[in-house]
Specification:
By secondary structure, the chain is an all-alpha fold. 71% of the residues lie in helices and 0% in strands. The protein contains 14 helices and no strands. The two termini are 33 Å apart. 36% of the residues are buried.
């Protein structure tokens, strides 16, 4: 999870604005495939070799990743932000050579502010930048709270029955003193749950470069809130319950991918990683809080739990509308003054 933000920042700095949303969404499918891979490994390894070998086998792709990092070029945006003009030119020459092109004539301009390292204070350097950062922090918190809440609600509601039946009178309060191994049926359900994220990512893939970042995220959050509210419908059918939950998870997953694209686009190079990292840190707070709602508060009031997740998702959709900048088709900026200029014109 810590590597996700770094991957997004580096990849975004190599893509042209016209197709950045498409390709960043496309590469995000590797996250889903990775989760499915780990579950599949657990399906075969856990019953025979145990959890230690599961960790060893799951970590093996990281060895390949570490080796590949040596061959990854640093972005030209980063070199320019550090004031390293020659290194930036070397990266651009490598990109041109890889694509069978030649660099256009002219000289690479390095701004006067290049070489300055960004600080956290610059995320709040003026009124509109403060509004952008504050809204993003709330949106990231809310979407992480809802996303992981839906993940936990899926297992909780399947275990207890539908939310309308999960009342204090019929909740099984059995305590387990020993660890319970997942059955093959459990692993199959986890894989199916994870595959529900594919439709949400496909929606993002299809519309983000046409409808724009803000509209894509807002619509998916609105639809997710509506999908969560469908859980108020009393049904004994697990198929119907599965459809409601998977629809909600797919939509919030697609919206999460879109906010991963928007955030690095809105900040200049020298604070891009800091901005995305700060948002990701606040999102972890939502991850920490949500189990107390999805697993503890659900036992007290299923109705209030479902309503809370829908309301938070709705608030995130509204907050996105008030973000000052739409980044669709916008080149990445290298200096804070370019961001301020865009904010003034919005």
């Amino acid at each position: 999870m810590f590597m996700e933000g770094k991957r997004v920042v580096l990849y975004s700095e190599f893509l042209p604005s016209t197709v950045r949303g498409f390709w960043m969404t496309l590469v995000s499918f590797s996250w889903i495939l990775g989760v499915v891979w780990v579950v599949a490994v657990g399906y075969f390894v856990m019953p025979t070799l145990g959890w230690r070998w599961l960790l060893v086998i799951s970590a093996m792709p990281l060895i390949i990743f570490i080796a590949c990092c040596y061959f990854l070029p640093e972005s030209a945006y980063y070199h320019v932000a550090c004031g390293n003009k020659e290194a930036a030119l070397d990266t651009l020459k490598l990109v041109a050579k890889t694509n069978g092109k030649s660099l256009p004539p002219g000289d690479l301009k390095v701004g006067s502010g290049s070489g300055d390292r960004g600080t956290f204070v610059e995320l709040y350097s003026d009124r509109k930048t403060t509004i952008t950062t504050s809204l993003l922090l709330f949106i990231w918190f809310a979407m992480a709270f809802v996303y992981y809440g839906i993940v936990l609600l899926t297992t909780e509601l399947f275990a207890k029955g539908h939310s309308c039946a999960a009342t204090p009178a019929n909740i099984d309060e059995t305590c387990f003193d020993s660890c319970q191994l997942l059955t093959k049926k459990d692993y199959t359900k986890i894989i199916i749950t994870t595959l529900a994220e594919f439709p949400g990512h496909l929606i993002t893939l299809g519309i983000i470069d046409y409808a724009g970042r803000k509209l894509t995220i807002s619509i998916q959050n609105m639809l997710c809130a509506g999908s969560i509210l469908l859980l108020f419908i009393c049904t004994k059918s697990q198929i119907t319950l599965t459809v409601f939950l998977f629809l909600a998870r797919g939509l919030i997953s697609g919206a999460f991918q879109a906010i991963y694209i928007y955030t690095p686009e809105v900040y200049p190079t020298h604070v891009r990683g800091m901005g995305l990292g700060t948002c990701g840190s606040i999102a972890r707070i939502g991850c920490i809080i949500t189990p107390f709602v999805a697993q503890v508060f659900l036992d007290k009031s299923p109705t209030a739990t479902i309503a809370l997740y829908a309301f938070v998702c709705f608030l995130a959709a509204v907050a996105i509308i008030f973000l000052p900048i739409e980044t669709k088709g916008r080149n990445l900026v290298s200096q804070l003054k370019e961001t301020k200029s865009a904010l003034k014109s919005s």
